[in-house]
């Protein structure tokens, strides 16, 4: 599960979700699957989402299983 993505989806309206998905080359449904832990973002998709969100989402936050979640303070 990507808590970072889940938070982002909850804080943004459907138009912004659609815009992000389009910029990243995926679908809003796929974003919800990633957020819920039903799928994992590939490193390529994580990079596209980081770029598309202008850093609002990070590779580390999308794939904490690989990088650890450095977005949280200890």
Could you give the topology of this structure?
Elements: H1 3-11, H2 14-24, H3 28-35, H4 43-52, H5 59-62, H6 64-67
Helix pairs in contact: 1-3, 2-4
Write structural notes for this entry:
The structure is a single chain. The chain has 74 residues and is mainly alpha-helical. It has a single domain (3-67), classed as 434 Repressor (Amino-terminal Domain). The protein is 62% helix and 0% strand. The protein is built from six helices and no strands. The radius of gyration is 11 Å and the shape is globular.
Outline of the structure:
The chain has 74 residues and is an all-alpha fold.
Which CATH architecture would you pick?
A: Orthogonal Bundle
The largest β sheet comes out as: none
CATH class: Mainly Alpha
How much of the sequence is in beta strands? under 5%
Instruction: Provide the domain count.
Output: 1
SSE class: mainly alpha
Tally the helices.
6
Measure the end-to-end span.
Answer: 20 Å
Average residue-wise pLDDT: 92
Instruction: Give the overall silhouette.
Output: globular
- The helicity comes to 55-70%
Q: Give the SSE string.
A: HHHHHH
Number of strands: 0
Name the poorly predicted regions. none
CATH topology: 434 Repressor (Amino-terminal Domain)
């Amino acid at each position: 599960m990507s808590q970072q993505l889940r938070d982002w989806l909850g804080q943004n309206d459907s138009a912004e979700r659609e815009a992000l998905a389009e910029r990243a080359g995926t679908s809003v449904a796929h974003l919800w699957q990633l957020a819920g832990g039903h799928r994992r973002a590939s490193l390529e998709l994580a990079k596209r989402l980081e770029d598309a969100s202008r850093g609002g989402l990070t590779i580390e936050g999308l794939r904490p299983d690989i990088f650890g979640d450095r977005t949280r303070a200890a």
